[in-house]
Write a structure and sequence with these properties.
The chain is mainly α. Helix content is about 65%, strand content about 0%.
Amino acid sequence: MYSWIWRHLPGSRAMKLLQALLLVAAVVTLLMLVVFPWVEPRLPFNAVTTS
């Protein structure tokens, strides 16, 4: 999959590297700001019991 992304990015090697880093940053940002806050209330980690 990563090689497919690398092949389809336009530009020289330096531009491809910059674009790949921007893609990674965009995915991490999307996960941190949208996906993880949406999933967190649905996880049972707050219902911890000890005996």
